[in-house]
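Progress against Task 2.4 (sequence-to-structure conversion) is shown through the following example record, which the project officer requested during the mid-term review.
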Amino acid sequence: MPPASAITALPNAAAPARARQKPRVAPWLLPLILVLGLFYLYPVFDVFRLALTRATLLGDEGGYTFATLAQTLSRPEIPGILGVTATFTLASVFSQQLLGLFIALVVVRGEKRRLFGTTIVRTTALIAWVVPGIAGGIIWKMLFNEAPFGGLNSLLRLMGASPVQWLSDPNLVMWSVVVSNVWRGTAFSMVVMYAALKAIDPVLYEAASVDGATARQRLFHVTLPQLRSAILVNMILITIQTLNTFDAIISLTGGGPGRSTEVLSLYTFNVVFRNYDLASGAVLSILMLIISLGLALIYAAFLPKGEER
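Structure tokens generated for the chain above:
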């Protein structure tokens, strides 16, 4: 009978042999890979092709040139557009993460204590999520309306306060747009955080309670570390979603006053469908893609590795 050390060494000896085995590809996967590649990658390649032309919605002048890239990226309004986009994205992502986590914590704690109204809170947040962006923008435009029938200004008048120029003040309109976007997007963060909270092992909280940890200590030393992956993944998703948001803005402010709320996605829409400049729109789309991928890679770098999990 071989010694115990030899028996325990057998799996380790077989491991290199298994590692040398090449992964097999099922034949039925090849057509699927081809179809998905054409469906997802061809439009991307076509955008890169259009960025090297002078194409418009009215026709194609033909030929390839790098002049479109230089002319589009050197436009004087581009730095201001990027600044507006950064402000809108940072404020929206931070607020959605914070509010989504707060609502999820309230709902989970309410469910544990079987409090009445937790289902209502969760459903109310989800209702805003399913409202189309255009409809959401119209709803908030009615609330922010500066006329006597405006929703928020009417409440201010009832309380004896002066009306606020929600949509015409360049220093205030951006935060009005952020509020409307956070109202709609918080539900997604709430769903992600809710699922992650339900997946945390209750034994961790029991051990913390035995050690005398307060509720605040349990939050910062148990809950948030366990939510690290969910927070980062959610941040990637809502950042990409926010960078592509333009429907709510176009119905709420149209990018105004001036260009104080014209984010990059809305600017791209205007360049293509109002100026008919398809090639410049392709360049701006590539710029949005680069920004989204760059932020996603930065977030992904902070995701816990396999051994950390």
